[in-house]
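SEVERITY: medium
COMPONENT: batch folding queue
REPORTER: lab tech (J.R.)

DESCRIPTION
The queue accepted two submissions in a row. Attaching both inputs and their returned structure tokens so the on-call engineer can compare them side by side.

ATTACHMENT 1
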Amino acid sequence: SSVVNVSQIATVDRNSLIDRVGILPDDHMDLVARGLRMVLEL
């Protein structure tokens, strides 16, 4: 099980990423987007 902490946002240079770990299902991405909108007050 994994956790996304939307209150601690950091930028990452794409060139520093090596391998893809996995893909989040759409319903999980929707929850992440919802959390980001809440934290960023969008």
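ATTACHMENT 2
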Amino acid sequence: MANSPTHHTKRLSDLINEFQLKQHITSPTRITTTSKTLIDIIMTKASDTKIIDSGVIHLGLSDHSLVYICRKVGIPRAEPKIVETRQFKYFNSSAFQYDLKMAFQNHYNLYNYADPNHAWE
């Protein structure tokens, strides 16, 4: 009965089903002379269509193997930069200076009130 699921195994299986996940590593990731065990997992949403490849590479450097997954990645486009310009062909310097003077004068007058509610009346 060594292969019967433990409480933790059942809980992991329930979570995989509940969140609709897919386990991509299916071959053993730890190999010794007496056993082969899958101890590494890579999970994605089951609906993820961008997975290209996944697997295990046995390097022979230790009893633990390398796991990998390859996924398509889109490069986001940069937001367009909007530049606002003004047409100065018919620029009237006097009118512009008058507009600035009036804007600052109206702004300055707001500070002459002790009560801010009166400033906007």
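NOTES FROM REPORTER
Strands lie at 21-23, 30-31, 36-37, 43-45, 51-57, 66-71.
No errors were logged for either attachment.
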